[in-house]
Every structure is written in structure tokens, then in C-alpha cells.
Design a protein that fits this description.
By secondary structure, this protein is α/β, with parallel strands linked by helices. It is built from eight helices and eight strands, in the order βαβαβαβαββαβαβαα. Helix 2 packs parallel to helix 3. The chain is globular, with a radius of gyration of 16 Å. It binds D-xylitol-5-phosphate and zinc ion.
């Protein structure tokens, strides 16, 4: 059984003092730092590129979980591998077919980075499920990619269950991450469905108590995940 990991998203951090923010998240017990990369094309919002990932890498020792919300991940994935991503996730719906998904997962792995694949709430698991063995992580979006602070969509947990059951029946040791609207309550829904990695942006960075918020997510999720043990 996997342990629960909490990945605060810097999207809701104070970028004036980004070093202080990511170090504080690490000291507060974060297991990863989630970096949301947006290109203003795949999603209607712009954030940052490899330069910021490279800077964050120098500030913390926990893994960087980089989430590409960009239209051309094939072109830019290598830059994020070089910048220090430990886990690099792209959206399956940004690519033409499952063959292209498999090829990019393989490319990322060949660079020594753990590959992940994500899908938005309205996209089916069929976009990647046949290539699950090539991935180390699946990210099920529980909000539409693009902005922090949105409301959790519980219906997306059906997809978590599908991925979990395929992973178990195929004997795959894969991380299932839920991203969007995770807090001390919704974390239990995620873990109950089978997710073991939880992204929390505004719930952590929008608070004055990072350790307390990370603990709240971890406790709710750990309890539900254990109850759900298969
Ligand atoms: C949404 C991003 C998420 C987001 C999560 O496009 O991928 O990682 O920052 O933020 P919250 O936890 O505030 O929904
Ligand atoms: Zn994200």
C-alpha cells in the first residue's frame, strides 16, 4: 500500500518571496512541491516556465512535481527535465493519440524523470489507460485546469476508481494524484477513491498555518485510504 503524499501547489504562493514559501512548505511537512506550468493556450492563464522550476529546485530537497498545462508538451518537456523536475506530467488531451502519449512518457523517462499523464474532468481515462505501464503517475483533475481556488468536482472520482482498478489488476505500482479543490474534507473523497497524492494549492498557501493544513489533508486522506485498502 502506498503512503499518502501532499503536494502544495505554488500557484497560490506569494511569488515575491517564493524561496521562503517553498522552504516553509517543505518545513511544514510537504512531500513534494507542485509547479503549475500554463501557456495561455492550452489553458486561459499564463504562469511560468523552466526558469522558475530551476530556481525552486535550488531551494528545496523534496521532489518537484511539475504539471504541464501546455499545448505542446513534446516540444517543452525536455526543458523541464533539464530544469530539475523529478516528476513531469503532461495532459493526454494535448496529444493526438495514445501512441503519442506513450512516446512522450518514454521520452521523459529516458531523461531520468518520472513521467506522469493528466486529464481534465471532461476527458476519459481511455486517452491513456492502455499505456498505464509506461507512466509513474496519473493526475486526475478535480477542477478544470487553469486556475487555483476552484471547487472540487466529486464526479471526477469515478475516474480515480477506474485508474486504481486497472492499476491493481495489471499489478502496476503507480501514483494516483488528484489536483484541484483539495482541502481537509475533499481529501477523504480522493483517498477513498484510491488517490495517494493530493495537490493542495489555496488550502495550504492561502492559509497562515501551512503545517496545520498539510496535516489536515494528510490525516483525512490517510484514514480514508486505509479504510479503502484492497
Ligand atoms: C489547476 C492547477 C492546480 C491548482 C490547485 O489548474 O493544476 O494545481 O493550483 O489549486 P487549488 O488547490 O487551489 O485548487
Ligand atoms: Zn496542478
Amino acid at each position: 500500500m502506498k503512503t499518502i503524499e501532499i503536494a502544495p501547489s505554488i500557484l497560490s504562493a506569494d511569488f515575491r518571496v517564493l524561496e521562503r514559501e517553498v522552504k516553509a512548505a517543505q518545513d511544514a511537512g510537504a512531500d513534494r512541491i507542485h509547479c503549475d506550468v500554463m501557456d495561455g493556450h492550452f489553458v486561459p492563464n499564463l504562469t511560468f516556465g523552466p526558469l522558475v522550476v530551476e530556481a525552486v529546485k535550488k531551494c528545496v530537497s523534496i521532489p518537484l512535481d511539475v504539471h504541464l498545462m501546455i499545448s505542446d508538451p513534446v516540444k517543452y518537456a525536455p526543458d523541464f527535465c533539464s530544469a530539475g523536475a523529478d516528476i513531469l506530467t503532461f495532459h493526454a488531451e494535448a496529444l493526438s493519440d495514445t501512441k503519442a502519449v506513450k512516446a512522450l512518457l518514454d521520452t521523459i523517462r529516458s531523461k531520468g524523470v518520472r513521467p506522469g499523464v493528466a486529464v481534465n474532468p471532461d476527458k476519459p481515462a481511455e486517452l491513456f489507460i492502455d499505456e498505464l505501464a509506461a507512466a509513474d503517475q496519473v493526475v486526475i483533475m478535480s477542477v478544470y485546469a487553469g486556475f487555483g481556488g476552484q471547487k472540487f468536482m466529486p464526479q471526477t472520482m469515478d475516474k480515480v476508481r477506474v485508474v486504481r482498478s486497472v492499476a491493481i489488476s495489471s499489478g502496476l505500482d503507480i501514483d494516483i494524484e488528484v489536483d484541484g479543490g483539495v482541502n481537509g474534507e475533499t481529501a477523504a473523497d480522493c483517498a477513498k477513491a484510491g488517490a495517494n497524492v493530493l495537490v493542495a494549492g489555496s488550502f495550504v498557501f492561502g492559509s497562515g498555518d501551512y503545517a496545520g493544513r498539510i496535516r489536515a489533508v494528510r490525516e483525512a486522506a490517510s484514514k480514508a485510504y486505509t479504510e479503502n485498502r484492497l
